[in-house]
Structures are given as C-alpha cells and as structure tokens.
Design goal:
Blueprint: H1 3-21, E1 27-28, H2 30-39, E2 50-54, H3 55-68, E3 73-76, E4 89-93, E5 97-100, E6 114-120, E7 122-123, H4 127-148, H5 157-169, H6 177-187, E8 196-197, E9 211-212, E10 219-224, E11 227-232, H7 235-243, E12 261-264, H8 269-274, H9 276-285, H10 292-297
Parallel strand pairs: 2-6
Antiparallel strand pairs: 1-2, 3-4, 4-6, 5-12, 7-8, 8-9, 10-11
Helix pairs in contact: 4-5, 4-6
Domain LicD/FKTN/FKRP nucleotidyltransferase: 19-243
Organism: Faecalicoccus pleomorphus
InterPro entries: LicD/FKTN/FKRP_NTP_transf, LPS_cholinephosphotransferase
C-alpha cells in the first residue's frame, strides 16, 4: 500500500469494527471487490474503497457512525452539505484534505480522504415497473443536482429550464428534498426481501447493472491487504456482469487513478475552506505538491 491507500484502509477498519459490533451487514463492491479478488488488496493504481450497506440498515449505520466512530472521522453526505453532489455518503478523515476540481468553488463541499458507503436496495422484479423505478430515481438525482448548483452557462434548452425550475423550487423546498425522495423510493424495495438489485447510484445504464440479489445476500471473506474484507459470495458473477473479463489488466497507460484533485494527508480540509484562494491557485497552476500554494499565500 502507498501512504494514501494506508490512510484510507484505516478508515475502512474503523467502519468495519462498527458494523461488526452492531451486526450491520456490508460488503465490498466495484473496484474494491475487484481488487480483493485480483490483487488481494487495492488495485495498485487506484485509491478508492467502496462498500455497500443494505438500504434497510443504511440509516442505522449513519446514526451509529455519527455517534461512535472516532472523533476524527465524519459522516459526509448531502443532508449536511448543500453542495455535495453524490447521492451516497462518505466517511471522511477530518485531519486530511481531498478536493476534487469540481468542488473548488464550493468551500462547504471540501472534505478529507474517504471511503464510499453506498445504499444498496432491491428493485422491482417486473421489467416495466423496474424501468419506471429507474426513471424516478434518475429524475430525483437530476433534480437533486440542479437544485444544489447554479445554472451553468453551458446549460442549454430544456436543461437550462430544468435548472431554473429546480432553483425556483428552492424557495419552497429545502435542498435536501429531492435526496430525501430518492431514499424514500429506495426504501420501498428492501434488499433482503427483493429478488433483484442494481447499483442505482451509477450514472450509466442501470439495466446493465441489474443482478439477482442472491449473488450478494451471502458474503465470503477475502484477503485484502493486512486484513480480510467481505465480498459477495458470487463475486465472480458480479464482476463478470460489471467488468466482463475482469482478469485482463487495462493497458499500462490507463493504470492511473481517474481523479483531478488536491490531496493533503497532513492538513485538514477545514484550513483550505478558510482559504479557498489556496485551492484556486492549486488548480490554476496544476501544482503537484498541495503545500506549494500555501507557501505562496502565507
């Protein structure tokens, strides 16, 4: 593990202890599951760590996380942060900084390094009902996005009208309204009592990621760095569905973390929030060392 991966892994270990203490089921998904199977740890050129928690346990987890995780760890989600775009929550290390390029103009969205905690629900078994379910989720996701951010100059036609409508509704509705509606819809289909599930938080074709829930409902512990991590028992079927032939490594030139971000393992994001000019300087100069803009600014 590199230094960043090690710090992220420590966040996971605290979350894992909390889930085990309270019998909250969870499992690795996406690149984390792929990393466990193919690399017995992180994908070497990536630093994401993603877990999923069934929707019927998700709120319980967040409540307990706010109360019982070490004080330096924080639940970060759209219910507390007006400019948080993601539909799911993160557990962040407040002692560090992670700022994606798209966050630079919104200091309230700055955060620490993190792990992602996704809510996984069931989806309707009937195909037509499932399509309507996916459409509703997409609408709530789009409205959640547009209600939180200003109308972009590049937005045109119906998209600009939708932005204007969403912002107009902010007079009557709190920014969290569409996010709450999104979660209320997920709760209609509990994970453990549904035949089908999907990675509903992904922007790509949801139908492509529709899978039998039974693939996930039992877990197997796989080696992951210095520890073990629960993965879906049918991880082979899951990974083939998501990545096709997942044993084939990408070309060398593609083995890079796909993030344009400022990361600082030694300074809290709260310091950067007090000085957003440091952040703008970092991205305008495309500096590789996050301490450089600080030296110029102090």
């Amino acid at each position: 593990m590199n230094q960043l991966q090690e710090r992220i892994f420590k966040i996971y270990q605290e979350v894992s202890k909390l889930c085990q203490k309270h019998d909250i089921p969870y499992f690795a998904i996406g690149g984390t599951c792929l990393g466990a199977v193919r690399h017995q740890g992180f994908i070497p050129w990536d630093d994401d760590l993603d877990i999923a928690i069934p929707i019927e346990h998700y709120e319980e987890f967040l409540t307990l996380a706010r109360k019982e995780l070490p004080s330096y760890l924080e639940v970060y989600d759209g219910f507390d942060r007006p400019h948080h775009l993601c539909l799911f929550s993160k557990i962040i290390d407040q002692r560090t900084t992670y700022i994606h390029e798209t966050q630079k103009d919104y200091p309230d969205s700055y955060m620490g390094i993190f792990i992602d905690v996704m809510p996984i629900s069931g989806v309707p078994s009937d195909r037509k009902k499932r399509e309507r379910f996916y459409k509703k989720l997409r609408w709530y996701a789009i409205l959640n996005n547009h209600s939180r951010f200003p109308i972009r100059s590049r937005s045109k036609g119906s998209r600009q009208l939708l932005c204007a409508f969403s912002h107009g509704m902010n007079i009557f509705l709190p920014k969290q309204y569409y996010l709450k509606q999104y979660f209320q819809l997920l709760k209609k289909y509990p994970f453990f009592s549904s035949q089908w599930t999907s990675f509903v938080w992904l922007d790509s074709s949801l139908d492509r990621f529709t899978m039998p829930s039974k693939w996930f409902q039992k877990q197997v512990m796989l080696p992951f760095e210095k520890d073990r991590i629960p993965c879906p028992k049918d991880y082979d079927a899951v990974l083939k569905k998501q990545y096709q032939d997942y044993w084939i490594l990408p070309p060398v030139q593609d083995r890079v973390a796909p993030h344009k971000s400022l990361m600082d393992l030694h300074r809290s994001y709260q310091e950067y929030a007090k000085h957003p000019e440091w952040v703008n300087l970092y991205f305008s100069q495309k500096l590789s060392d996050p301490n450089e803009p600080l030296k110029d600014s102090q």
